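Q: Hi! New to this. If I give you a protein sequence and the SMILES for NAP, can you show me the bound structure?
A: Yes, paste them in.
Q: Okay, here:
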Amino acid sequence: MSEKKIITVFGATGAQGGGLAHAILSDANSEFAVRAVTRDPNSDKAKELARLGAEVVTADIDDKESMQKALAGAYGAYFVTFFWAHFSAEKETAEAKNMAAAAKAAGIKHAIWSTLEDVRTFVPLDNDSMPTLQGKYKVPHFDGKGEADHFFAEAGIPVTYLMASFYWDNMIYFGMGPKKGADGNFYLTLPMADKKMAGIAAEDIGKCAYGIFKKGNEFIGKTVGIAGDQLTGDEMAGVLSKSLGQTVVYNMVTPAQYRAFGFPGADDLGNMFQFYAEFEQHCNKTRDLKLSKELNPGLLSFEAWLNKYGPSIPLD
Ligand SMILES: NC(=O)c1ccc[n+]([C@@H]2O[C@H](COP(=O)([O-])OP(=O)(O)OC[C@H]3O[C@@H](n4cnc5c(N)ncnc54)[C@H](OP(=O)(O)O)[C@@H]3O)[C@@H](O)[C@H]2O)c1
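A: Thanks. Here is the predicted structure of the protein with NAP bound:
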């Protein structure tokens, strides 16, 4: 174990980091060891990671010193920030800046930074096709991450920029699944027009990240976008209907209608879907299905994800 190269995994009890931690821990021949970062080593998830062989350490990404300790002696690090814990793009950028500084100080040999596009490079702030949010962002939970990329580059960190896709798990945990209409059918509401959206099983993000670490230097300095499928709303509804045994209809709304739903983050997500739809080619080209499969041969398609997790989608 001590011969193995340590990878410090932020968010190890969550979706992205958890997928990576479990991917490494379930590979008995892995050249890597997991140092799992949590704020609460007594949580069930943290204890489970320890049981599986991870070194569990306590750190908070808002506490530079704890982050530094978590990285000491590590070969690699998986850096992810948690936008939905605070909804602030500015805070997210500052957290990523601290991550880059901590990686530099620790001499990390391979960092994976979980980023997304800075949508303002596609839709400038003075473009009124989508509202400007938080004073200076188009899609705050994308822009704050994309803006932070340069901190890693400028610090000279050997970094891979990892871009995930829409988690299908949002249908289970964030109320984005089909909802029953007055006619008894189920409706999948998305503002994606007739465009294809890249989606992924949350568990596959960490598995793809493991694939990147296993490739050594191959992806250092590169951006790797990942997805398990690229489907239109109609196609998603079709797969849902088949898998759930219920008629699911794609309820195509406009981004403006979606923003007006008014739940926390609806404006940010409305802008995000608008970006996915209007820059369909860019988003799907960047999130490469073939490469994702090469990195993670067990990659789930939407249908395979539904076969595994469909019963967990709340249908009401
Ligand atoms: N949902 C999507 O479709 C989607 C798609 C692409 C990208 N993303 C991005 O994914 C990111 C979230 O990643 P995720 O889904 O893996 O998160 P997650 O499942 O919510 O997990 C977050 C984990 O991180 C830890 N954590 C939270 N705040 C922390 C802090 N201040 N310091 C240290 N650890 C902290 C928590 O662990 P402890 O409680 O154990 O400390 C928690 O288990 C967001 O920034 C989001 O924008 C989401």
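A: The first strand starts at residue 5 and ends at 9. Let me know if you'd like me to explain how to read the tokens.
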